[in-house]
Design brief:
Elements: H1 6-31, E1 46-53, E2 58-60, E3 66-68, E4 76-82, H2 88-103, E5 111-117, H3 120-125, H4 127-131, E6 136-140, H5 146-153, E7 163-166, E8 171-176, H6 182-195
Parallel strand pairs: 4-5, 5-6
Antiparallel strand pairs: 1-8, 2-3, 4-7, 7-8
Helix pairs in contact: 2-6
Length: 199
């Protein structure tokens, strides 16, 4: 039985040193669950790309106080844009985001909830509903305000009762459609809170 000469043996060793790690990496990649593969996205909401830095604004709250960009700092903010009266679908999403925030337990204080309504009259007409959401700030829509900025930034027409997310640096970064399961919104929020060092 012939044996390999030393030069051929060295060449085979070099090839093995190159191919074995490559094969191991390929096997590892193929066996990973889809959500964990490099380059895959695991978010359930829609990323707004590029993210939009919210411009300075100041609006009136339902209670007559002022609310502006500084009130968004250092917190994650879930924003409801409410067109007209808050009907059943709108009311359900307000309920869901309230429950999600409560379920965050010790991280609850890192998240704000904000609703933007068309007019002071609509804000007044829904006073009973706001009483069920004491943790939520309600502001009146205004030209150049936050609602206008969101509407003009999101390129695709978004469905009514969508929810938007602003990060602690004041960047509009995600959109959650109304048909998304609430637990999926919570999953995204939990992941962001876990990874975040800014709010």
């Amino acid at each position: 039985m012939s044996t390999l000469n030393p030069n051929k043996r060295r060449l085979l060793i070099v090839f093995a040193l190159f191919l074995i790690p490559l094969a191991a990496a390929a096997t590892w990649y193929l066996l990973l669950p889809a959500g964990y593969k490099p380059g895959s996205t695991t978010n359930n909401g829609n990323l707004i790309q590029p993210i939009y830095p919210v411009q300075a604004f100041e609006q009136t709250t339902k209670d007559g106080t002022r609310f502006g960009g500084k009130d968004l700092e250092k917190k994650w903010t879930l924003v409801h844009l409410i067109d007209g009266q808050c009907a059943e679908a709108c009311s359900k999403w307000l309920y869901h985001t309230r429950q999600i925030r409560i379920a965050l337990a010790e991280d609850m204080e890192r998240v704000n909830r904000l609703a933007i309504v068309d007019s002071a009259q609509i804000a007044a007409e829904n006073s009973k509903m706001w009483a069920s959401h004491p943790d939520m700030q309600v502001i009146i829509s205004a030209a150049g305000g936050l609602g206008t900025q969101i509407s003009s930034t999101v390129e695709q027409a978004y469905p009514r009762n969508s929810v938007f997310l602003i990060d602690p640096l004041g960047n509009l970064m995600m959109h959650f459609p109304p048909d998304l399961e609430p637990k999926k919104l919570m999953k995204d929020l939990e992941k962001l809170l876990r990874l975040s060092r800014i709010g």
